[in-house]
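Re: the pair you flagged

First of the two:
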Amino acid sequence: MPPRRNGVSGPTSAMTAYLKEQGIVGRTGVNYNPAPAAAADPPANAEAGPSNSTYAVAGSSSRRPTDLIDLDEEDEAEDSDQLPQKAGTKRKKKIINIDDSDDLDGDDDYSTSKNKNKNDDDSDSDVAPAPPPKKKGAPAPGKKKVGGGGRPANGSITACGECGAKVTVTNYSPPSPNDPSAVLCRPCAIAAGLGDYKGPAAAKKAAAKKAAPPAQRRKIVHYEEKARILTLKDLTIEVIAKNVEDVESLGNIGSANMEKVNDIICKHRKMTSQTAQLFYDVELKTFTMKDCTNIDPRGFLILSNLCPNLTSLTLNLCGQLTDEPLVYFSTQLPSLTRLELLGPFLVRKQAWIDFFTNMGSRLEGFLVRQSPRLDLECISALAENCGTNLTELRLSECGKMEGSWLSVLAQGGLKKLQHLDLSYPLNPLPSGCSDLEELIVAIGPNLLSLNLAGQSLLTSKDLYTLLPLNLLVLTRLDLTLLPLLTEEGVAPIVPAPPQDQGEEVGEDEIPVEMGTGMAEVFRTWEQEGNVGLESVKMGKAHQLKGATLQALVGLAGEKLRELEITGWKDVEEEVVKELGKTCKGLMRLDLGWCRNVTDFTLKQILEDAENLQEVIVWGCNLITINHPRKKGVKIAGVESHQF
């Protein structure tokens, strides 16, 4: 049991006695006041006996004060009556740090080890050595020292190194450039350019990142492709387009360069009512703006006033076009003969009717896309007032289109119509639509271009009725997204029952109705004397195969310039190989998702088609990275190029 302050010790257990013999003593749990660091040495002839100062404290600059217990003094008190001592002899104290008593076998780093060794040799004092003095600038126990060079501890209040104002030191207090031991207040830190200081650790990390060389990412190039060097004219045009808001006048730079600047500005969505005035001119005949998103109705009115001699006007993405500007076009542009609009959502029915009435027979081209308010009354006004001289008509993506529109157009006398676009309606025309047949018969002799893309209910039999007999001068045909088209007609005709009821008809004797497949459509069209197609788009007709392609190539021949057969997944490779030999004038070919196309197919086409400029092979997974190439021919869609 540990000694008490009155010098009386109670009984001890066997374990306590054993630990005392080994020099191990646990914490006493007694609250006490540590002895002073410097204690006076007792007289040399003092008698051995119980002592009241049995505890000593040793301090350290890096760890908390540790309790030190005088083990020999207790032994001295208990054994003083049993063990006589010689006069003049002194017992040396043994100091044990009880915090480190759990690791007696290790190399204990006692805080007073150096002083202990010195006292064993030179000192006869019975008092524990005083702790070493605290170093200047060391933080107080429990406080973390921040930075270096005598920086104040976090939480302390000090004076700013520049203005002398009081500052509470935190980890984000920047050091003074003139005195690293001082910190700056917030105003001085901002003035010194240290407003975003985030602590010493962040400063070191930022400095290391700035000093480290930039890491270079690995770039894998499968084939070398040299970029075209821009001319000085092109560079100048790009600079003008990027800073068009600061340009007062473009001057006389030529119509071609003016169109380039216009396209670049529209591409960057910088065309506004103010910047558009840079392109207006009194002598302008044809004007196109590919992005009118930021042009308000007042901007369209200014266009009519500053370009009074326009004959053709194209406005794409004209969502802010309203009734007033549209009617204003018909009255303030007396030479206007062609109008093309994309997205005139805000124009109402009465404005369309007024426009057609004011334009009259001088309107030669009306091309509109995405107009949800056009209805049967508007089409009737168009056919009645403008039908006689109309040569171009586009009614694409019109939400209210129906078969009655076509009947009204057929009766409107559109004898001069050459280009007709009825693509992607909200409600496709049904199969066997008599109104469509009536319109094609009425305008067929002069029609050069027909677009029926998105009329997904039309079948091969419908096209057999429309195309071969009526469109003999057609050169451009778009039948994209007609999934019901078939290769050959195989619908059997049920024969009449035989006279002899007992006689059975063999399977080979059942007649089959032929001529409803697309192959037969093109063969019949060729026999009727079509002049030859120059552009054919029949993508996403997944049931068509090689027989249709052979018949199409036989009809078009060398006049074919553009061919799109995207999605003909079962077309044979041998048929595709012959395209270059038959269609030597082919310039653009789209073979996307034709699964049988290989490197050898592409090689044969490149060798035979002398004028070929572009080949698209998206989804042709048999084409490898080693596919053949040809100078001047762009091959797009090779899967290996994407990695």
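Second of the two:
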Amino acid sequence: MRAGDHGEALVLSHIGDSQLALGRTRDARNTWTAALEILTALGHADAEGLKVRLAWLDGARDAAADLPTGLRERAKPVDLHNVIGRGDPEGVMWGEPTGSRPARRTVLRQLASVPLLTLPTLGLGACARDADPSDDPFGVRRDAPLEVVIFNGGYGDEYAKVHQSMYRTKFPKADVTHVPTKDIQGLVQPRLMAGNPPDVVLNDGARQFQLGSLVNDGQLASLDGLMNARTIDDPAVKVREMLLPGTMDSGTFNATVYSLNYAYTLFGLYYDAALFRSKGWTAPTTWDEFRALAPKIKAAGIAPWTHAGDYPYYMGWPLADWIQKVGGTAAAMKIDNLEPGAWRQEAVTAALSMVIEMVAKGWVLRGSENLSHLESQQALIDGKAALMPCGTWLENEMKGSLRPGVELTLLPVWSVSDGDALPHGSVRAGAVGSFVVPEKAANKAGALEYLRIMASAAGAAAFARSTLSLASIRGSADTVTGSTALTSAREVLGRAGTNILQWRLNDWYVNLDKQWQAAVDDLMRGRIKRPSEFTTRMEWAADQIAKDPSVTKFRRQK
């Protein structure tokens, strides 16, 4: 029995698809068998779907018939009867022929061009249109190499390998290079300066570029053409129409789209629902509820709160969201737009007063100010802390250390008071993880097509399955089950409706963001005792940016 990981099995399966499309049936069988051995060794549910395809490849329809009825019904090839010209809606796989039967080689070649299965958990087949050589809105040179640099962080990089396999299926002569890294700036900046950048870059992580700076320097290609291109799944639908709300806005600078922000992330507070249930605690929805609950949590030997002190922006997320909850979108727009007096708004003072009290009363896990993101997340999983700010990548990032029985659950930031401008349930949500195409990329057309593949139904589903998170494409996680974190995220987003919190400061102004993070760090270390110390500092920093003619200004309209 062969050992391996699910990502390797996905790649092998796509290679088998390509081999079958080229008529290399024996090679396809060997490749799929290797993928099946990995999935079987892992005990992965995808193994059953691959058995079906191998059974068909070998002409062993009886083997497929032995599958449980429910699985057999869900494993039917999508529209296979239309692709191969048969009138039987059950297709060749399950029903008896009612018309003339095409040649076996014809069926096999056409089978490779459709989605493998409609089984919800299956990630082994490329979308039918992915392999259609005529569907090429950007005029890709078919043998041009493509280099993709991926930030390998909380979401990992397995999903990117699937996307690259899908690209290879469409352009089998192209050499696709996958480059994972945790230091985007360190790897990409020298190449930008030398004029030979990669074709696609996932700009993310602690060492990411400030997109506003790259835009100002003319380093990024416009993605407006991608947004207006037809989707792979439906030529009548444009890519922009498949994006979740706010996705285009988050990648837009002065009316031009420069990034496809792909991970649709919800930010909020995470807790272990199983722990709360066992203690008889109710997750707080208001500041008063947290104030009443925090002493009980502390009495149980658990810290009410922890955060990733090494990366102050983790704590900056809920602080900023409380400001917007109290003051509404108008308060956030004043700050993002560098309006005079924006940091002296009452909403800022109210949010800061709350956090200052949390620190002063010892409700934060001791030493949190020096914890990495992984250490703070482990503290939550280990039951050392009850609540922690994070985003929807949490479960995937910590899957290697999750204890059995832990039920990671997302909670929107609580309401500060009854007078909040926005209701409880308002949540920061938006597309993050910026996929960009450098202006001087050697294969710009291929890069745009790669992003279009990512925006397909199959590409988005591969991301959701791999990361247990939402992609910024509609319906990406509709068939993903078994995750309390993802289920709660979907529920939180559904309840929020139009009450979505968004900020642009960190994208637009690198120096102001640095000042914000430094102030948040001092706040959580107990160095800031009064809200005015924080607001005066940030008002001064914002004024400096506003007065600096060398800094390109952006303006938020909503």
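The longest helix spans residues 313-336.

-B.
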